[in-house]
Design brief:
alpha/beta, Rossmann fold, 5-stranded mixed β-sheet, 30% helix, 12% strand
Length: 195
């Protein structure tokens, strides 16, 4: 199976370096142009289906890319961005990103999804897609934070495990390939409810 991961185009909050999370911020003019560039770049990609986060910035990016493909575009809530709780709408400079993305410590901040909760929902989503669409080429339209789980699913943790170092640029497709029956590269334990 082939997967293309596409993070949404730029928003005003991206440009201003503000944590978006579950906040539903639309693409800005730059983001619309980036999505159009991704559309042109992916024109020949053999995409069978697109799964998109329900958040407007990802869904609009998916719609633009789909202008050449005309394939089913499925809204998948599990691909939404991480809920950053008290850090939503906070400048990057005031957000403890390294701590928030420490998988081993799995810290719980007020009203925020833990990193393991994010990984569990993304892994379940990828497992379900692979079970339902073996052999197909899938595009995922989603977000930079949640996309870290996709990177680890296919490539494993980075050396030293600093998840914050896994960066997905806006609207630049990243290709992954996996055998239909292969397990995720890094199995993730079920969420225990502890944190």
């Amino acid at each position: 199976m082939i997967f293309y991961l596409v993070r949404h185009g730029e928003t005003d909050w991206n440009a201003r370096e503000i944590v978006q999370g579950d906040s539903d911020i639309p693409l800005n003019e730059t983001g619309l142009a980036q999505a159009a560039q991704a559309r042109d770049l992916m024109k020949e990609a053999p995409i069978d289906v697109i799964y998109s986060s329900p958040l407007v910035r990802a869904h609009r990016t998916a719609e633009i890319i789909n202008e050449y493909h005309h394939v089913p575009l499925i809204t998948e809530p599990r691909l939404r961005e991480r809920n950053y709780g008290i850090f939503e709408a906070v400048p990057y400079s005031e957000y403890p990103g390294v701590d928030c993305w420490d998988y081993d410590r799995n810290l719980r901040f007020e009203k925020m999804e833990t990193v393991r909760e994010v990984f569990e929902r993304i892994y379940r989503c990828l497992d379900d897609i692979r079970r339902e669409r073996p052999g197909q080429c899938i595009m995922l339209a989603m977000h930079g934070g949640a996309a870290r789980a996709v990177h680890v699913y296919f490539n494993g943790f980075p050396e030293g495990r600093p998840l914050k170092s896994l960066f997905t640029p806006n609207a630049q497709p990243i290709r992954f390939e996996i055998a239909d029956d292969a397990p995720a590269f890094t199995p993730i334990p079920e969420h225990s409810g502890e944190s």
